[in-house]
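Lab channel / #folding
Pinned by the channel admin:
"Please post every new chain as: sequence first, then the structure tokens as a reply. Keep commentary short and put observations after the output so the thread stays searchable."

First post following the new format, from NK:
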Amino acid sequence: MADGANTKDIPQGVFDLYDQYCHGQISRRAFFDGLGKYAVGGLSVTALAACAMPDYSKQQTDEADEDIAGEMVTYVSPNGAGEMSGYFVRPVRSVTLPGVLVVHENRGLNPHIRDVARRAAKAGYTAFAPDALYPLGGYPGNDDDGRALQAQRDPAAMLADFMAGAEFLRDHPTTNGKVGVTGFCFGGAITNLMAVKQPWLSCAVPFYGGWPSAEEAAQLEVPLQIHLAGLDDRVNAGWPAYQAALDAAGKVYEVYIYEGVNHGFHNDTTPRYDEAAAKLAWSRTLDFFGKHLA
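Reply from TO:
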């Protein structure tokens, strides 16, 4: 990294500041001002910011991979934007497969989420990752502008758009009608809500997302596997209440809490990434998909 900074040099406070910034709790200026207190021992604010920001050159899959084929497609979302678009990718073989819907974070369909969709395709699924920013021109090429654009959209309409995306995937001629959904942060919250509102889903795997209400917990019929980061106090604060509601309603679920890791630990384009936790969580996700989508 620039100015001699690397991931192991980054204090936890920098991760906490970035979490506030990328979730709209503080401005970009406040983020950079806050970094100033950590710019010691040869670390500059610029270097710390560069360490905290995503690096989308880091990809686990290749768009040119000959084993999969991906394209942007449109679909109808009558209760949301009307027309929507997403990244549709599947193995290159003429058989019907189960589907996996991938729900992005609070900044649109960025390169990392496209990479996650390709990972699902490489694992043997037809994957679909809608872009909630399509009605506003699509993911703009950077996360700052993506966050600003996504904040302009109505949350209920975006939920409807992802639900319509799951129905599009279910009814697509290349899928067998079984659909699982996974999502991250904002996408984790959407995944939790879809599990409540779309009982036909085969399974749902939210990563560190917000929680439905206790009343909604009682409606859950979809197999649920939850992944949480041990250091993610913001999201984890709501888990005990939702867990109690699930237990009171007699719902069956799995939950995994990865101690000592930050919110966003699955995202390998930022230094919040924890390789061991991410690999374990993804292997558990694929095992869960294999169990419920087979």
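NK: Confidence is low (pLDDT under 50) at residues 1-5.
TO: also worth noting, The two ends are 43 Å apart (CA to CA).
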